[in-house]
Amino acid sequence: MEGDGLSTAAVDTEVATEYEEFDSHSKWGSEAIRAEHQVCVSDPETRQHGLTKHTTYLVSGTTLQGSSFSTRKRYNDFEWLKQALVYAYPGVFVPPIPRKQKMGRFEEHFVENRRRALEEFLQRIFNRPYLANSSTFKAWLQRGESGMEGLKREYIRKPLSELFHEYRNGFQPYLRSMQAPGDKDRLSAFKQYLTKHANSLKAIYRVACRVVKAHTDAHVAISELHTKMADLRNGEVVFVNDAYGGSQQSVRVDLSEVFYAEKQSLAESPSQSYDLLQSVVGRELRDVESMLEGIQSLDKLTHMQMQTRGKLEKEENIQHNIARHQQGDFLSVLRGKDKEAQLHDVAISISRLRQELQLLEEWIGLAKVVLTCKEMPSFTSDKVDKYRDVVEEFAKRQAATSLQRAELWSQFLRRIGREQAPYGMPPTNGLGTLRATGASMSVPPAPVPPSASPSSSTTLSSAPHTQHTGTPQTHDGRDGGGAASGGDGGVVVVGGASGGAANGCR
């Protein structure tokens, strides 16, 4: 890896990443743990040295071979591991890690979210034996804080041939079922697709964030609306009671109970489950960016091949010039090297470059097979399957929520005797009779699909009843009199004992 180690801070991606980071504790769209292993990132500890602070995490567990490990790591150590694996495994998907953050990175909720995301990063590496069995990863697990600098130096000095042989051995179990790609343009098309796909996901993610926030804010507002509606009606009841001395008089419909019931029905998911879409899209976006890093790592390997070929051509030209001059290269003669020594040195350099070029050609060919025949199809199908599963759950929850809310408002309409009837038919109370003439009804809750998770069905009877004084009342049939709708919209006129009604003072 001489001259081509991890000299850059990270492999650049073509996708901008200014979108808001999603909460890593959301598991919708996450990858199942498939490997037999134990890995845990725990016990975050923030330390301060002078004016600087950093947080370390305890990384513990057992490897695929059963060896135990327990070391403390900083976020930068995880970042280095990610970069090292991307470089050593061109064309391969290496799971993403949480992004860097300058502000608020020592706050408790941020540290916890990062801990969860780092643990998931390691779990996903263990899901891929070719990564989990790499010498770099196994050494990383065993090195503590004091040993990380030494590991980085060892990695930079590691020969390219060693990395290639480890890459080839890691994919040996898969190579039997792989065939060389027949279309050389498939890689380019895949890269272009991922770039456009990432931009689409980013746009959807931004909108999903807005929808989640809007529904969450609306849930808070409905909570306030419940109390404000109760205050409004209570004030009116007190006024009517005082002004008319207890005589029956119209008061507005009480919406506080139905808003309370609606608030309770959404308590378990104030965002109305749009956070499921937010999570699966956010996770897919991060994975797409990581897949692009793998493709760009292959591009870097191809660039290294071109550089090596250029160096080889240069050395061959030097060899030709030395051979056709009597004393060889003039500057080399001044340094005390005769023609024979010059030819010997350049021959060694040419031999080394030819070996390196052959290795790079083999590595690039193998990486293209791995990317085209393994990574591309598995990556695409995995995203399609996870998206389908989450969307199915989202649809079930939306259906359950819609049924529950529809039944809630239908129950409210039945209580006030104003449920809509088919065109040309008189309004009914849902039981085939005319407007409700009996006591308020208790309606069974709407059915909820087993997999949906909105809170248990809420009926109007479960809402806290507002205490009212006096006799003013809405039309619920308790007087047995006739009723007429007032002209104020939402004010229901209640008839007296004789069945007559008037909107105003008598």
TrEMBL record:
Biased composition (Gly residues): 480-490
Region called Disordered, residue ranges: 420-490
Low complexity composition-biased segments: 453-474
Top-level lineage group: Eukaryota
Any GO MF annotation of the entry: phosphatidylinositol binding
Pfam families reported for this sequence: PX
Residue ranges occupied by any PX domain in the UniProt entry: 35-148
GO CC terms: endosome
InterPro entries linked to this entry: AH/BAR_dom_sf, PX_dom, PX_dom_sf
PANTHER family in the record: FI18122P1, SORTING NEXIN
Protein name: PX domain-containing protein
